[in-house]
Amino acid sequence: MNLLLKKLGILYLMLLSIAYAQAEVEQIQTDIDNGAYALAANISAPTAIELYPNNPQAHYLYAFSLYLVNKIQEARAELAVALSLDTDYSSQYQHLNGLLFAAEGDTYLARQELKAAFKNDPNYEYAMDWARVAWQSEHFDEAIEAFKLASQTEKGKIEGWPLLNIGRILHKQADYDAAISAFKKAIQLFDAKDNSYSRNFLPSPGYVETFYQLGQIYEELGDVKRAKAYYNSAKNSDPDLEAASIALKRLENTAP
Predict the structure, then answer these.
(1) What is the pTM of this model?
(2) CATH 1.25.40.10, applies to 159-256
């Protein structure tokens, strides 16, 4: 009986230790999710590491928080520790590795890792990061592909950003019809999402940007009437948008 009680006590302490470790790790994730990157990198992650030095998830989140505060070398070293403790090279490691490659200037390896991360775990954030790196490195077709994949994820189906960014790329390429189509679909998504909340706040910046981009396209096409309408929509959505005011002043004396 005493032996059984002793074993149960040991088991209880083990479970308690796991629970405490999980709470410490969850705190790092909470800080990151709340945008408190410096807090995660300087307080919650180091605390978790000190208490649970063999926890790979704590090291991974520490590495991610270091990346977010632009401490790239330290993040790379911390990711190596996480990988030494966890032999399963999962999508979260691929994703962070890709972000670090991008920060280090190796956009080829960054794109390969981010694409692989999305293939293994097709979530919105992985696709958007892959698309962003492809776009910034001027691999435009790949960026459009990745943004399209992002828009097909569960989260992406209600987000206007992938379509807005596709429209931006197509606009730069002077593919006006395709850009207009992407922008109009983005407006529908931004509008639907904004209307799901209280209206006592400014619309999404993406919503405003989409109207402004459409104004630019129609101005470039010489359709002054539509250009003015979309610039006005942008300004009505955000009265402080100086670019829309400048555009409307520029077109003030231009006949439709």
Answers:
(1) 0.86
(2) yes
